[in-house]
Specification:
Elements: H1 5-15, E1 20-25, E2 33-38, H2 47-57, E3 69-74
Parallel strand pairs: 2-3
Antiparallel strand pairs: 1-2
């Protein structure tokens, strides 16, 4: 069973306090997601480090129950 957008969002915001997560269902099937994660904790980190933080937040579900996630990360501008 695929992960829901709200479940993905909850896992990320629980692990990265202050994160704002915008979820988009790419295929309309609840199985292929895009997530834009904006978090102050990303400041000073490389894009690879930012993505690793998000993948760590998902607790090893990438490649399993969550097999399609288009990820973009950003630091808040204000």
């Amino acid at each position: 069973m695929p992960m829901s957008g709200p479940d993905i969002q909850e896992m990320i915001t629980s692990a990265i306090p202050g994160a704002v997560v915008e979820m988009t269902d790419l295929a309309g099937d609840g199985d292929h997601w895009a997530a834009k994660v904006t978090a102050p904790e990303f400041k000073g980190k490389s894009r690879v480090q930012q993505h690793k933080m998000v993948y760590d937040a998902l607790g090893g579900r990438m490649g399993g129950v969550l097999h399609a996630l288009q990820l973009s990360t950003a630091v808040p501008t204000s």
